[in-house]
Design the sequence.
């Protein structure tokens, strides 16, 4: 028998959460599960990465503000779709749990994938009240990191029996270490064999704090001008911070040593063109881009926030630095430039960690176990 799961998100676009959903849809058995995605606002062509089975998408085009028209549209849609289970993700979709209950759906899952800049540590009083109000309606919770699981248990009061921690998986076939020359995806003559390319991939939103990485790169080269021969910076992604970073580089006269092309779809190739991956976030759940970097054999410099500390072992497969500190970040970049052996050693450990700890089949099996328990107990 095939179970129909409706996944409700705020928006389905380029991002780590959506990438995890794509991996899940492409791995779970289509004989056992059928999927529909409901975006409360809208969705993008990112859905075309789903290749293993057809997945229907619906957009409710919810406008900004507190209007409730979307709840009526969602209720009608759920009554039409008749799902066996509803899976909401993150705070922005949590209110859909109330609509699912009104539509008579008892088997529900809610996933926490990370928090945004408006509530970095999950302590906003209004949001805590909302989460606690929804708690009786949620059959099971999935947290992508131990940090989020602990917060759900201690701050929101989720009972341990309803709480499941599942790490995201990464495609270790698509993402693999460079074995020969640097792939020809960077601008011509941007980097040669002797260059050290520091790079990052992600939404250029405030929570990712790419201006701090940019300032660290500028500070590095101001303090050590000779390193301009070798140091390069790549940031892949689109968002409000892109213009800020470009302005900072332009004002510093270092625009020629950095490449910020916006959104790209050849991320696996770009990862193999990097030497060190850097993530300057103010907070994270479990970063899919860190997982992809590990699978690509890259040492990772990341801020010591959220789930980053569960992926990056300081001095083993990368370096942890203080969030918001351009000085600490610049020192970490400098250490890599001064010790190229560190890059090789930590990169090998990074690849090993990706293979042993973060496989997509293991992730899919864990999600399936939660779905089966939920359907058995509440379906």
Sequence:
């Amino acid at each position: 028998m095939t179970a129909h799961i409706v996944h409700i998100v705020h928006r389905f676009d380029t991002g780590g959460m959506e990438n995890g959903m794509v991996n899940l849809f492409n791995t779970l058995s289509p004989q056992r599960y059928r999927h529909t995605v409901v975006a409360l606002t809208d969705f993008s062509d990112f859905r075309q990465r789903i290749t293993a089975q057809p997945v229907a998408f619906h957009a409710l085009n919810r406008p900004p503000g507190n209007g409730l028209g979307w709840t009526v549209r969602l209720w009608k849609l759920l009554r039409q779709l008749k799902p066996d289970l509803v899976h909401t993700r993150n705070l922005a979709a949590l209110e859909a749990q109330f609509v699912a209950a009104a539509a008579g759906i008892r088997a529900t899952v809610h996933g926490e994938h990370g928090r945004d800049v408006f509530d970095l540590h999950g302590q906003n009083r209004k949001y805590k009240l909302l989460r606690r109000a929804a708690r009786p309606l949620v059959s099971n919770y999935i947290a992508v990191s131990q940090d989020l699981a602990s917060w759900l248990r201690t701050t929101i009061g989720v009972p341990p029996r309803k709480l499941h921690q599942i790490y995201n998986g990464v495609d270790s076939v698509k993402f693999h270490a460079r074995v020969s020359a640097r792939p020809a995806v960077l601008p011509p003559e941007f980097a040669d064999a002797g260059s050290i390319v520091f790079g990052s991939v992600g939404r250029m939103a405030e929570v990712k704090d790419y201006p701090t990485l940019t300032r660290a790169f500028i500070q590095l080269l101001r303090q050590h001008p000779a390193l301009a021969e070798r140091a390069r910076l790549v940031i892949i992604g689109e968002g409000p911070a892109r213009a800020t970073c470009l302005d900072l580089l332009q004002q510093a006269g270092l625009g020629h040593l950095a490449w910020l092309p916006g959104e790209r779809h050849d991320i696996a190739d770009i990862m193999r063109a990097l030497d060190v991956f850097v993530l300057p976030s103010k907070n994270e759940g479990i970063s899919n881009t860190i997982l992809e970097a590990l699978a690509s054999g890259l040492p990772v410099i990341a801020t010591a926030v959220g789930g980053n500390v569960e992926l990056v072992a300081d001095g083993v497969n990368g370096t942890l630095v203080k969030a918001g500190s351009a000085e600490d970040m610049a020192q970490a970049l400098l250490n890599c430039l001064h010790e190229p052996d560190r890059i090789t050693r930590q990169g090998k450990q990074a690849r090993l960690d990706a293979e042993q700890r973060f496989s997509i089949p293991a992730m899919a099996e864990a999600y399936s176990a939660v779905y089966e328990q939920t359907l058995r107990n509440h379906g």
